[in-house]
Amino acid sequence: MQFTSTRDPNLRVSFREAVFQGLAPDGGLYHPIETPDLRDLFLSFAPSQSFADLAESILPRLFPEEISPSVAKRIAQRAFPFSPALRRILPEGDRKIQILELFHGPSCAFKDFGASFLAAVMEEFLKDEASHAVILTATSGDTGSAVARAFYKREHIDVVILYPSQRVSPLQEKQLTTLGGNIHALEVKGSFDDCQRMVKEAFVDPELIRKIRLTSANSINIGRLIPQAFYYIWAYANLSPTEQEACIFCVPSGNFGNLTAGVLAWKWGLPVQRFIAATNINKVVPEYLQNGIYKPRSSVQTLSNAMDVGNPSNFERLSRIFHGNHAEMHRWIEGIWVTDNETLHTIRTYYATEGIFLDPHTALGVRASERYLTEGYTPKPNCIVSLGTAHPGKFLEIVEEATGKRPPLPAQLQAVLELPKQAVMIGNSSEELKRFLMKRF
Ligand SMILES: *Cc1c(COP(=O)(O)O)cnc(C)c1O
Description:
This protein has helices at residues 15-21, 39-44, 51-62, 69-79, 111-129, 142-151, 170-177, 192-203, 206-211, 222-237, 241-245, 257-267, 284-291, 315-321, 326-332, 340-354, 360-374, 396-403, 411-417, 430-440, and strands at residues 3-5, 30-32, 85-88, 97-101, 133-138, 157-164, 183-188, 214-215, 247-252, 274-279, 333-337, 383-388, 423-426. It is built from 20 helices and 13 strands.
C-alpha cells in the first residue's frame, strides 16, 4: 500500500515515509492510494480472537511489501497489550445499542490505539535502519498523555513534550511528567499557542534538523489512523449474525480521525450499513451532510471538549474517500449533533437506570444513537455500535455534576497521581527549545 497527499495526487510515498513525515510536504494529509479488498479476511475472524491477533493478521495484507508476518506479530503484540470491549446497554427497554469501549489502554481514551501502534511501528522501522528519532510535540493536556505512554521505553526513540505551565489539569500534568526515562516533559512559561509555535519553528530550523531526526506523532499521522480501523473490524466479529446483517457505527467526532478510520474499514470490505457522525454544537460536518456546504468556523467550548473542533483536519481525507461527492457521503454517513443538555441528561439517565457511568463524549454518541433509532432516520439497523471514546473517570467533575456520584478513577490514572513530577521549566522562545534539544541529543 502506498500513500499520496490529499493535495497532490502525483505524490507517492511508502508507509514508512508517510509515518515519519506525518504531514505531506505540500501541507496535505497522507492517504492510501489502493483500496485492498479484505472482506474474506474480515469475515473469517471469530469472537474469540484477541485484538492483537486480529491486528497481526490484517497488517501483512495491508502492507505486503513493508510488513512481513513476523514483523506484524512483533508490532501487534507490543502495541496492543490492551483490548477494546463491547458492552450492551438498554435504551428505552431495547437492546439495540452497544458501546465499543476503547478506553482500557494506558491513558484511558481511544487515542491509545493509534499512539501505541505508531510507537511500535516507528520502533520497528528505526531498529531496522539502526537510527534514532526524537518525537517533538505540543499538548494542551489530553493528547500528549496518550503519546507519552505509548512511546515510554520504546527503543531508538525519545519524546519531548511541551505543555503550557499551569494551564493543564493536575491529573494531566501528572500523566505527562511522571514517566521519566525517554519521555522528556518541558513545562513552558507560556500558552499552548506558544508551545505549538516553538514546535513548528524547531521543525524548520536547518541546524536542528541536520543534527536530530525530528518527527511528530500528532493525530493526523496515517500511522495513528490505520490501527483505528481495526477496532471496527474487531467489533463486527463480536456481533451476532443478525446484528452483523444491519449494523451501524456511531462515532463521537471532533477532528474526524476516528470516523475516517471506520470508513476505511468499510472501504476495505467491512459490511457496515451506515455510519453516524455525532458531534456537539461544533456541527460543521453534520451541516455539510445536510446541505452540501462546508463552512468551517471557530470552535465553541462544550462539555465534550475533545470534540470542540470548528475545522476538522480529517475532513480532507473523508471527502477524498467519497471523491468529493456530497450525496454519496451522505448516503453512507448521517450527521447528528447533540446539545450539552442532552449529554448531561444521557449521563444521568444511564446512571439512574443501569448504574453505568458514561463520559461526556461517549454519552453524546449514545444520545445520537438513540435519536437515530427513534427519529425519522433510515435505514433502521439491527444494532448500533456506539464508540466509547474515554473512561468516565477522566471527566470526574462533569460526570459527578450529572449523576451526583463520583465515578472511580481508573487504576492506570490513580497510579500516576502518586508519582513525582519530573519536568524542565523553559521560557516561551524557540531559542530555549533549541538549546535544550541541541544539548540533550
Ligand atoms: C479525540 C477525542 C474524540 C474525537 O475524535 P476524532 O478522531 O478527533 O474525531 C472524541 N472523544 C474523545 C474522548 C477524544 O479524546
